[in-house]
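Weekly puzzle thread! Below is a chain. First person to post its structure in token form gets bragging rights.
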Amino acid sequence: MGGWKWGGMAAAMLAMVGTGAQAAEPGACALVQSAAADALFSIPFRTVDGRIYIEARVDGQGPFVFAVDTGASGMARADARLVARLGLPVHGSGETSDGVASARVDTVHLTSLDLAGLVRRDLEVITRDYASRLSAEAGFDGIVGRDFFGDGLLIIDYPSRMLRFTRKAGLARGAPGVLAYERAFRVPATIGGVAAEANLDTGANVAFVLPKALFDRVGGGPVAAAGEGRLTNSTVDTRRAMVAGPFRIGGAELSNVEVRVSENYPELLAGAHALQHFALLIDQRTKTVALCPPEAD
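Winning reply:
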């Protein structure tokens, strides 16, 4: 799968949160609330270790617990327990990459996946044993991937714990505060005065992961051992450090953040522990995102 999961790490990653004076474009952030009137759905969600959990129905059965993961490509994933419960036979195979290593995986066929009335049919999805890596509280039956929301505007309103989806509103490429991307969901970011590109991953239970080379460019500082970060197909050694920043991504600003630093992780990752302080808007039709601070909601 495309998302990276950092197991076995401390839950509290963010030392201090500050929403800076730099605000996202008002029109984009106004959609956090205004889109509710015409949304196909507007549903509450809960979080565990920063990850987003909702309920969905599979092949007319359920509800089952699914995680919403912007780091996961494709429509969905099915946990091995769900596959066993529904008696789904292995339908094929595929390959998945976690950015460091690739692996062959089995696939199963889902007749339908229904999230609050948004239904996708005839899906070929990856299946793996995800649950054994997680606590009972953090376990899930499946994952909703980013392509599930590909034909509309997805609004993840973390402060209000609401998930919305609409096809009647959207983000305009080039508008103030709206960030364009070419590869999902890598967008411009700055750390202090250093420009970078951040991968926005709601499924990663960290604030930020910095490659060592980028960490050194932003000033570095004392580091401490933090054990291994567990990715989908591999593990990477990480260290813990404080970075003053500020980290800026669109209308989001965070200062004095505890981060993970890795010699062999390939890119800057902005995970759930950073994103959960903001509203995240994603419009794959125009390849754009916006991050809005709470006061803009």
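Puzzle host: Confirmed. Bonus trivia for everyone else. The domain at 169-296 is CATH 2.40.70.10 (Cathepsin D, subunit A; domain 1).
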